[in-house]
Design brief:
The protein is mainly α. It has one domain: Acyl-CoA dehydrogenase/oxidase, N-terminal domain (Butyryl-Coa Dehydrogenase, subunit A, domain 1, Orthogonal Bundle). About 75% of the residues lie in helices and about 0% in strands. The N and C termini lie far apart (about 35 Å).
Length: about 120
């Protein structure tokens, strides 16, 4: 596999991920965002679905149970989610800030203990 093939595969993977996020947002988030925001209701069902999509492990290395997405792909996901409902992006984004700190600065023992739980 050459660099061009690898790049095309990565682009295809990103396109599939973003299409999945777009479908999720259209079907599960957009129809409920206004009412949940207005009533100040925590979106438990949406959060559970975000977990199933892997958003809470989006940037965590696969060896620790995450998706290992590149920063550019993650930024595109956050941009899409924020455009539909900013509050929801804050839920998984703040979570991943802590995961990034553990992944970057934690000991191997801490990484193996905490990252799979994130």
């Amino acid at each position: 596999m050459n660099a061009r093939t690898t790049s095309n595969t990565a682009d295809d993977d990103e396109a599939l991920i973003l299409a999945s996020i777009d479908r999720f947002l259209e079907r599960e988030v957009a129809p409920h965002a206004h009412d949940l925001e207005a009533s100040d209701t925590y979106p438990r069902e949406i959060v559970e679905q975000m977990k199933e999509l892997g958003l809470f492990g989006a940037t965590i290395d696969p060896e620790y149970g995450g998706l290992g997405l590149p920063a550019v792909t993650y930024a595109k996901i956050v941009e899409r989610v924020s455009a539909v409902w900013m509050s929801v992006s804050g839920i998984f984004n703040s979570h991943l800030i802590m995961a990034a700190a553990v992944q970057r600065f934690g000991t191997e023992e801490q990484k193996r203990h905490y990252l799979p739980r994130f």
